[in-house]
Hints:
With 323 residues, this protein is α+β, with helices and mostly antiparallel strands. Among the domains are: 3-50 and 174-248, no CATH class; 63-165, no CATH class. It has six helices and 16 strands. It has helices spanning 3-12, 21-38, 194-204, 229-237, 254-267, 297-307; strands at 63-66, 84-88, 90-92, 98-107, 112-120, 130-132, 135-137, 142-149, 156-159, 164-165, 209-215, 220-225, 244-248, 273-282, 285-294, 312-320. The strands form three sheets. Strands 1, 2, 3, 4, 5, 8, 9, 10, 14, 15 and 16 form an eleven-stranded mixed beta sheet that branches. Helix 1 packs across helix 3 (194-204) and helix 5 runs antiparallel to helix 6. It is elongated, with a radius of gyration of 23 Å. Mean pLDDT is 79; it is low at 14-79. Residues 11-30 are annotated as: Disordered.
Amino acid sequence: MNEEDRVRALLERGVPEPPTPDQWASGAQRRARRSRLAGIAIALVAISAGVGVISQINPAPQQLVASPAPTSVPSNSSPADDLVVGESQLIEQPNGDVTFCVGLVYQMLPPSCKGVTVKGEFSWDMVDHQEANGIRYTDKAYRLIGRLDPVSAEGTLTIVEPPEAAAPAPSDERDMAAICSDPTRNADPATGSAQNWNELTEVAATLPVVSLWTSDGGSLVNVLVRGDSDSAYKALRSVWGGPLCVGDSDKSTLSERETALERVAAALPGDQYLSGSADAGDFHDPALLVEVVRLDPELRSQIESAAGDVNVIVKAMFTDYTS
Length: 323
C-alpha cells in the first residue's frame, strides 16, 4: 500500500460524501450562529469511533468484524495448569463441530468464522443461542476456559468449565474533536467539492502525516503532521476549501507505523499473528495494534523488538487463566 492509498483509506473510512458548496456554506452559517449563542468560537462535535477488537458486532450482511478479545489478567497472578481463557462467539459447523471464533467473523445468517474447535463438556443448552439454516450460533461473546492444543488459531480448546457470558465490552472511543478553533480560516466553499476531496488526499500523501480524521459530521478535516505544520496547512489549503485544521506532532508517522507493522508480521510465527493496524490508539498518540493468538513474554519481546520505536498495543485472543 503506497502513501496515497494509506491516506485515502483514513479519509474514506466511515466518511460521508463531502457537502456541496451550498450545503457547506449553509452549514457554516448554522455552526457560526450556534457558536455565537453558546459564547464560543465554534461548536465541536465529538463523533464516537470504535477501534480495536472488543465487541465490534455489525449486523450488516457480509460485514467483516473482529471477534472480541478477552479481558487481560493481573500480571502478578500465576497460570493455572496451562489453562487459557478467551472470549468470542460460538458457531456450529455443518458437521456438528463447535467453533470458538478467532479473528474475523462474517456477520451473515448464519454467521461464520474460523477458529478453534471446542471439545469437552459443552452443550448448546449452556448458552443463549439462535439458529439459522440449521446452524446454531451465539450473537454475543462467551468466556471459555480450557487447554489449547496446539496453540494456534485452528487448534482444539478442551474446556474445563461451563461457558459464561462475557461481560459487556467497554466502549473504545477516540477523541475526534477538531484541533483548531478556526477551521474556516482561508476557506473557500467553491473548492470543497468531491474533486477537491480527491486532491486533498493526493497532497496529504506527500506529507509526513501522523494522524488524519474528520469532525463535524465528516466535513471538517483534521491533520497532524510531523515537522512544519504551517507549510502543510498551505499545501492542503491550496486544494481544499472546506473546514481544515492542521497541527504538528512528534509522534510516529502513518508511513513509519505501516513499515513497523510489516516488520512485526514478518517476525511472528504464522500461526500466532492474527491481524494488525497502523491506525490504533488516540489520534494524538497513535500506535500499532497487533493481535495474536496467545501472548507470552517471548512473543511480546519479538513484537516490541520488531516495532522498534513505534508505540504498540498488543491484544491476545487467549491469555493465561489464573484461578
